[in-house]
Write a structure and sequence with these properties.
- The protein is α+β, with helices and mostly antiparallel strands.
- Among the domains are: 149-311, Jelly Rolls; 324-475, Jelly Rolls (Sandwich).
- The chain contains 5 helices and 27 strands.
Length: 484
């Protein structure tokens, strides 16, 4: 009937589930029993091995166990040297330890002989422990401090499609490795390759990658950046007579550092190549695979070891002495944002990075150095109405609103470095180190006695549609006038 079929199906399903659970429990219990048995055997073997090292095989075989009065004294004396062993090993050693035999004279001779042997063994053992501790300390150092990751330690011969692991990419990073070439080959031969998945043609597929030139030991180093997925640096100078070649059968430490807007390559801490186009290096969102060597090229004839990837979290630009950094990161402007105060100087320089994304009706403020009111401008920077052209004002004797207005408009969605310099009796304005405006009326600029407040942007005007960062005020001190 239908009820019997349903009951039978339920019974079969229950039996299957019960058998699966029983089999899983039996496997777990058997595995646990086997693991415990193997651990006990290992402990017993270690105890016997330690006993042989401490007391020697001959003493174990010659001296028999006798229950005499000096047994406790002998066992206590030699159990003091076993404090570092575990309790189970100590019990095993106690049951197997050599005993006091025959006479007091024999006991004293054995004691002297055993003491000298024990001292020699102790010295050898301490030397071994020192070496072992040193190796363990080297192995167990904090390799991940600050994101540091050691991918490959020992020097081994390069092999094609050898995958080491993954790393988290960083905008600023440093890759170092030791390399020992033993020959050359025809065509490109890969050393190591950091990639998100491919070989060539996309951003993130070489960050970085290193090859040997054809029939040479000269390195070919590539790392993608904004605008070029195959840019890099090929060393021409090196420790091998300035030819850029790595010496054969000798170990060289190669360091590739991408930071400060450039790529630097070092051979044994010596700078051999530099590329200044890495202001915006490629930073993929997913993890990066590491190959030594990659699956797309033949491996280079060399041994490689100590492959280390170190992300340089935050690169702080060096500010010259006397300069004051007001704003570091590039952020959208906000009205009435006070960032600090500076001491005014007769000759000074103000620089900042600006990236406009739009325009607005009326005057739009970018930044304002003031003593507390709108008419105090030391200097002040605005956008003209409905344009990205700058309006720069700085007070002087006879005019609080004099300045310089560059005719060139700032490009949208691109970063421009603007520098305003008041010195030598004039005001100079630079766009990316290029002079765009000059006013010769600043023989006597305004120098207030109190500190000057800095706003990015000020509370009296709407903010400009732009991002601003790296705002630096630098007093130029005493400026000597040039005599013609």
């Amino acid at each position: 009937s239908r009820a019997m079929r349903v009951h039978r199906a339920r019974y079969i399903r229950w039996m299957r589930n019960w058998s699966r659970r029983y089999n899983a429990w039996f496997r777990r219990s058997t595995r646990t029993y086997r693991a415990r048995l193997a651990a006990a055997r290992r402990r017993h073997a270690a105890a016997r091995r330690n006993l042989k090292q401490i007391y020697g095989v001959r003493m174990m075989r010659q001296w028999r166990a006798h229950r005499v009065g000096g047994l406790v004294k002998v066992v206590r004396q030699y159990m003091r040297s076993l404090r570092g062993l575990r309790i189970r090993q100590a019990r095993a050693l106690r049951s197997m330890a050599w005993r006091y035999v025959k006479s007091r004279r024999h006991y004293r001779a054995v004691q002297l002989r055993r003491r000298s042997a024990h001292i020699r063994w102790y010295r050898r053992r301490m030397a071994q422990l020192k070496r072992l501790r040193r190796r363990r300390w080297i192995r167990r150092r904090r390799l991940r401090r600050g994101g540091l990751r050691v991918l490959k330690r020992r020097m081994t011969r390069l092999r094609r499609n050898r995958y080491l692991g993954t790393v988290r990419p960083s905008k600023n990073y440093q890759v170092s490795f030791n390399i020992k070439p033993f020959g050359t080959r025809y065509n490109w031969h890969n050393v190591l390759h950091f990639t998100t998945g491919g070989n060539y043609g996309r951003y993130g597929w070489r960050i970085p990658a290193v090859w040997f030139f054809s029939r040479s030991t000269r390195l070919h180093i590539r790392s993608s950046r904004r605008g070029n997925h195959d840019d890099g640096c090929d060393p021409r100078r090196s420790i091998c007579r300035g030819t850029g070649l790595l010496p054969r059968h000798r170990t060289t430490k190669v360091t590739i550092r991408v930071a400060y807007g450039r790529m630097d390559v070092f051979f044994n801490r010596r700078l051999v190549c530099r590329n200044r186009n890495y202001r915006f290096p490629t930073v993929p969102r997913k993890r990066v695979k590491v190959y030594v060597a990659d699956p797309w090229h033949h491996p280079a004839p060399a041994h490689v070891g100590q492959v280390v990837y170190r992300p340089l979290r935050r690169v702080v630009r060096r500010i010259r002495r006397g300069a004051k950094l007001m704003v570091r990161r590039t952020k959208p402007l906000r009205r009435n944002k006070y960032v600090g105060a500076v001491r005014a100087a007769k000759s000074y320089k103000v620089s900042f990075n600006i990236k406009p994304w739009g325009t607005g009706h009326g005057w739009r403020n970018v930044l304002h150095f003031t003593t507390g009111r709108n008419r105090s401008r030391l200097p002040g920077v605005w956008f003209f109405s409905r344009t990205s052209r700058l309006h720069i004002r700085a007070g002087r004797r006879g005019s609080w609103n004099d300045g310089c207005d560059p005719r060139k408009h700032l490009p949208r969605h691109r970063t421009t470095k603007v520098t305003i310099r008041v010195a030598y009796g004039r005001m100079d304005v630079f766009y990316n180190r290029r002079l765009v405006c000059r006013s010769r009326n600043y023989r006597h600029p305004t120098v207030p006695k109190k500190r000057v407040k800095v706003y990015v942007s000020d509370p009296w005007y709407p903010r400009a549609s732009a991002r601003v960062g790296q705002v630096v005020y630098r007093p130029l001190g005493r400026v000597v006038r040039r005599i013609r």
